[in-house]
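Example protein as discussed:

>
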Amino acid sequence: MRTLISLVAVSFTCAQLVPAQTGPQAEPVIRVNVDLVQVDAIVTDAKGHHITDLRPEDFEVLEDGRPQKITNFSFIRVKAAEVAPVPRAANAATDVKNPAPSRNPRKADIRRTIALMLDDAGTNSTELFPVLAAARRFVDEKIAPGDMISVTASHGGMGFYQQFTNDKRQMHAAIDQIPERRGWLICDFIPAIPDRMRGAGPSTVACPPADPIGYLTNTILRLRDVPGRKAVVLFTHRFNAPPYLVDLANRAGIVIYVIDPTGASRRVQRDDDPELMLAKDTGGLFVRSAPGAGLVEDLGEVLEDMSGYYLLAYRPDRPEPAVGVADVRHNISVKVLGAGLTVRARNGFFGVTDPAVKNSREVHAAVAKQDPLDQAMYSAFAEDGIRVRLNPLFAASAPNAKGKRTPALRALLEIDGRDVTFTSVEGGNRRMVLDVVVGVFHPDGTEAGKQNQVFTVNVPAEKVSKLSTVGLQYSVDVAISQPGPYQVRAAVKDEASGEVGSSYAFLSVPDFNLPQISLSSLVLSLPAGAPANAVNKPEWSEFVAGTAVQFGCEVFGVKTASEGWSKVEMEVKLFRGGVAVVDTPPAPVRMERSEGRTFLSGMVKIPEQLEAGDYALEVVAYDRLQVPKKQMAAQWVDVSVLNR
């Protein structure tokens, strides 16, 4: 027990560090290949079922009314993995909803990327909250490991919640933030669209507090370089999309689905209604849904609609426009020749070689940095040129003179030794130099702290092969000043090869000064005297099946009786895909105090026959002397089970 207390205490001794400065920002450029035009097409039968066995001769593609020869043809399947149920904390009465953390998806793992956008201008709470409830269920029941999701609202001000993630905790937090931020009106700028695309008016316009056009434009621009199938799901009653927005979506290969969530239109729906045309012109669907389970099912149909599509390509039979020549819009028409079949595809594009589209401050900060290290840290997905794992730990400082504690954060990084480059130096040694940056961000996207460090390793040549197998481990401390939700992002650059890698995590740091129980991050270890095993890596939560794992954390805010005693119970669960493979009932636990701090610990044995893979360990502590609403605290940690 003493060993574990020391480990927990040492893990959370964080120094005050000065944030590093960021460099200048550059503007992104959207490029269109006019030599080869690619068109996504979805074909359904009369019942809406996808048709997946067509051939090139079953399609007819016209550009500006002229038939085009299909030169490339394929059916792309993007069906994501099965969706696992979401584990919940044991005591549902406490309304703690923390789904287990998920591993960062690599670029190659991403199958579908979806932006959920609520056009909440003029929406009252009666209409808003059923949509939010359906969105929560949609996240729990429909989002799979290969899906990346962003949640935003037309009032904006969503900060890092707008970033794409596969972490369902961040998705839930983003949905929960929407009603809180509707009155937080942050003005932004509509990206500077060329006048020839926008029509009459200035190239830069100040946004009003609620700007659905501006935020949808920003969403499209953030999606343009993301791999896989891409879509925007827009909840709206009425949306007048300007022509340039449709063309931006078509350039980026983004399908827009429009859902009227009220269940009944406030007017007679016409074929030329703008929101219906927005979906039709980008190859999406318009759905009039109803609040509740029906809305969840309609969102599920959107995912199913994205599970496969035909990719048709042709080389235009026309002269290529010169650079700098004004845009000329080319209309595309895709027809399917089978009886009773319907095809949906984008309806056109601008044939321009290199149009520049300026972006807003938010997109600049997220995707438009020139420095590869910053690009990796702000990327919507984890860059894997260097494989890196991030394990952020949080706890509390010792009480100050007023008895108050502040949060402390330490980012542990594990870098795959096979991905780094050693160069020769004097004396026959080898040198490796890594540039590491860790950033911590508030919910509004502002920087809570940032630390940049350069690590240099000099080793004899004969030790390089060993480092390639065991990996490299570093810790970076970042000072934060207050509790609350944070996103932690880390990026690593190999100075010799230029390769980069990144990882990110979502944290919710409790207020350690409140008069209720709270826990620090969990720290795992092997019991004292456990036999050595080179495969087990407790610091990275990797254990072979059959291993006994000790866990511990610091406890705050426990209520004591007048006689000085407390009554705390603890339960432990190990989840795989939302199903508990280990489930211990609540049982009394003895806490240990050391140097003014209180710790709890326990032991869990990983079952001998447990399948290798990723799991989540949950520890729930109950302060039975507290009132029900304040008596529970829970923490999760990823655990990887390895083969022997």
